Amino acid sequence: MKVKAFLARKNIEISVRRYLVDALGAMAQGLFCSLLIGTILNTLGQQLHIGFLTATVANINGADYTVGGLASAMVGPAMAVAIGYALQAPPLVLFSLIPVGIATNAIGGAGGPLAVLVVAIIAAELGKAVSKETKVDILVTPLVTILSGLGVAWLIAAPIGRAASWCGKLIMLATELQPFWMGVVVSVTVGVLLTLPVSSAAICAALSLTGLAGGAAVAGCCANMVGFAVMSFRENRWGGLVSQGLGTSMLQMGNIVKNPRIWLPAIATSAITGPVATCVFKMEMNGAAVNAGMGTCGLCGPIGVWTGWLTPSEAALANGAAAIVPGAMDWLGLALVCFVLPGLICWALGQLCRRIGWIKDGDLTLD
After folding, report:
1. What are phi and psi of 94, to 5 degrees?
2. 137 to each of 8, 98, 99, 134, 147, how far by Cα in Å?
3. Maximum CA pair distance of the chain?
4. Share in percent of the chain as helix, strand, coil (round to 5)
5. What distance in Å separates the CA atoms of residue 100 and residue 102, rounded to the nearest whole number?
């Protein structure tokens, strides 16, 4: 009982929701505000010849950085601080996670995001445990947070990184060998994760999911977001179209709990558009891996495909990707997979479900 009371007093909640919903979702926001934004800024600067975005703004240890480069370089600290924020860490713990994040991401390599998730959670909770327990809190809390974080990172970050990278490469290899069936599996799985209250973006980033598998993931996410947006237009009109199509299909989770069958059209759509992406258009997502799990949220999925054509990410380059000049089929595939097919197919399947009584008026209404 004493331990339980201590954990409650320290706001340490050991639960799936706290660690795999709150922390994972926050980590995706950290990724978005650093690596993803940095990638977009670099691509815009290079393709639109914007001097401010292509100029070197800092030189660190002999390496030149643009504005976007600096943003991308801060991905480790951004993820760690975001995770600490989700765990409601006090200020001294939160700020101490900065060095923990940068070190863990570096040690974790291609699987750095997953390593940061695990290590930042441990360091944050240990920091919270000692926070304000001594008269020299200004020293004790940062020391415990940083030393515990770096110690854990030294022990487990590299193995976690290798495991995540191996899993990601296995998924990508399987998709290349079996583009139809793996296109279905990856598209449906990532699309479902996008709508569930977990972060598909963080999972794709943790696995460094690029290439055909990344393209299938984009297809699945777009099928859910655009699909729900169009299918529920009768109930939610233009506000719902924008909030789901450019925001998140997670808004429908409350309705899905009430009537799970409303999810079937979007899931079936992802099962169709996934292999269309991998087999027909061979659409690859070689931008920042986090884009693979974003769908049409802020148009990040399509932007990731575009940036991958022009300037593949380091993870994609390591997996054999190369820059290309997109042709008409590439643009057609992007438009069909991300926007046109999800809207048409999900709408048609939704109409069928309405006719047979599986979906009734009001089932898709957003509060």
Report:
1. -60, -50
2. 20, 18, 18, 5, 15
3. 68
4. 80, 0, 20
5. 6
How confident is the model at residue 206, as a pLDDT? 82
The answer on 216 and 92 residing in a single domain is no
Do the Cβ atoms of 156 and 115 come closer than 8 Å?
yes
| CA atoms 234, 240, 242, 245: torsion sign | negative
Rounded CA separation 340/349 (Å): 14
Predicted structure pTM score = 0.76
Instruction: Label residue 211 left, alpha or beta by phi (over 0 means left) and psi (-120 to 50 means alpha).
Output: left
Q: In the block, which residue shows the tokens 């980033």? A: 205
- Tokens 């599986």 — which residue? 358
In the chain, at which residue ranges do the beta strands (DSSP E only) sit?
58-60, 63-65
- Per-residue pLDDT reduced to its tens digit, 203-262: 888 888 899 999 999 999 999 999 999 999 999 999 999 989 988 888 898 899 899 999
Helices marked H in 178-210: 179-195, 200-206
Burial label for 204, CB within 10 Å (0-12, 13-18, 19+), is buried
**Amino acid letter, residue 258:** K
The whole-number pLDDT of residue 164 equals: 82
Q: How far, in Å, CA of 259 to CA of 250, rounded?
A: 14
Is residue 316 included in any domain, yes or no? yes
* 216 and 122 within one domain: no
What is the Cα–Cα distance from 261 to 276, expressed in whole angstroms? Answer: 24
Two tokens at 284? 């690859």
Q: Does residue 1 have a pLDDT over 80?
A: no
Do both 258 and 236 map to the same domain? yes
Instruction: List the Cα angle 230/235/240 in 5-degree steps.
Output: 55
Range of the domain at 132: 2-164
The amino acid at residue 75 is V
Question: How many whole angstroms separate alpha carbon 228 and alpha carbon 232?
Answer: 6
Listed residue (257, 258, 240, 259) closest to 249, CA to CA: 240
